[in-house]
């Protein structure tokens, strides 16, 4: 122990049951080393406990997810037993994204999704979910001035959870999700993490609003679109058809209808395999 702190040999002496230290400063050095060791041990225990608690949280979350889609929607073979992570875009280490949300607002779920506009044109959006809001984050390029050409993250849409009327999905294995917002316009997007999103969103919605979030499963979904310029908003339709054997959708815009064709997935009765947190 004395050698590990590089204490000079003439500063201490070993007795039969005790160690005698010559200078008080040397004793203070040992006390400081002990405190650092204790601090390291405490951090190790805290880290292990946080990992245990997080594993338990995601195991419980997967069980809830299995219940949400059971007998309502076909499941995808490639993602059925995927582990839940929560943050898929590195939000905590991205200062530009963190600056767009409230300082005390904890983001529970973060993904990059494909969002469709009124003409069914796809574009990437970062979707952030907190206990109070849903954020859709896009990128815009500066067109004038000294920063011309530079790209910044901007909030394209911010919804309070109580603004959401319901969520629509098809009964097939596709990844489309529709957020319905009464009195405004709906948001259509596509994400492979839809099951985890629905699980976290329904849980946070019930805690914030005090009632269950309505999930509507149908293969023809009417979408209210955003007004642009002098043009009216109106509605669009998402039409889903099961055909072929492909697990990847064929997407075909046609006038005011987006036709989505995909092969048959796993049965609606399929349950997610929940691995024990002790495994």
Q: Tell me about the largest β-sheet.
A: 8 strands, mixed
Distance N to C terminus:
38 Å
How do the SSEs run, as a string of H and E? EEHHEEEEEEEHEEEEE
Number of helices: 3
User: Could you name the CATH class of the largest domain?
Assistant: Mainly Beta
Average the pLDDT over all residues and give the rounded result. Answer: 85
Radius of gyration, Cα only, in angstroms? 27 Å
State the CATH topology of the largest domain: PH-domain like
Task: Please write out the topology.
Elements: E1 12-14, E2 19-21, H1 24-69, H2 95-98, E3 107-116, E4 122-130, E5 133-141, E6 151-160, E7 166-169, E8 176-180, E9 187-190, H3 194-209, E10 214-217, E11 220-224, E12 235-242, E13 250-254, E14 257-262
Parallel strand pairs: 7-10, 12-14
Antiparallel strand pairs: 1-2, 3-4, 3-9, 4-5, 5-6, 7-8, 8-9, 11-12, 13-14
């Amino acid at each position: 122990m004395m050698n590990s702190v590089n204490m000079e040999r003439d500063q201490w002496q070993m007795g039969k049951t005790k160690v005698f230290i010559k200078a008080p400063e040397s004793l203070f050095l040992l006390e400081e080393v002990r405190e650092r060791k204790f601090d390291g041990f405490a951090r190790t225990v805290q880290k292990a406990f946080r990992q245990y608690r997080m594993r338990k949280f995601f195991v419980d979350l997967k069980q809830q997810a299995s219940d949400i889609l059971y007998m309502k929607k076909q499941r995808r073979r490639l993602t059925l037993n995927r582990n839940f992570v929560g943050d898929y875009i590195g939000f905590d280490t991205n200062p530009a994204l963190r600056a767009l949300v409230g300082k005390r607002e904890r983001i529970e779920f973060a993904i990059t999704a494909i969002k469709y506009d009124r003409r069914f044109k796809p574009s990437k959006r970062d979707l952030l979910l907190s206990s109070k809001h849903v954020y859709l984050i896009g990128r815009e390029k500066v067109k004038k001035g000294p920063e011309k050409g530079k790209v910044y993250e901007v909030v394209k849409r911010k919804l309070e959870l109580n603004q959401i009327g319901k969520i629509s999905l098809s009964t097939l294995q596709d990844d489309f999700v529709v957020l319905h917002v009464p009195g405004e316009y709906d948001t259509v997007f596509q994400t492979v993490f839809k099951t985890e999103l629905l699980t976290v969103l329904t849980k946070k919605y019930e805690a914030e609003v005090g009632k269950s979030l309505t999930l509507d499963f149908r293969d023809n979904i009417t979408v209210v679109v955003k007004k642009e310029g002098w043009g009216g908003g109106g509605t669009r339709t998402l039409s889903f058809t099961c055909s072929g054997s492909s697990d990847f959708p064929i997407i075909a815009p046609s006038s005011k209808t987006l036709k989505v064709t995909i092969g048959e997935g796993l049965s609606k009765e399929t349950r997610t395999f929940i691995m024990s947190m002790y495994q």
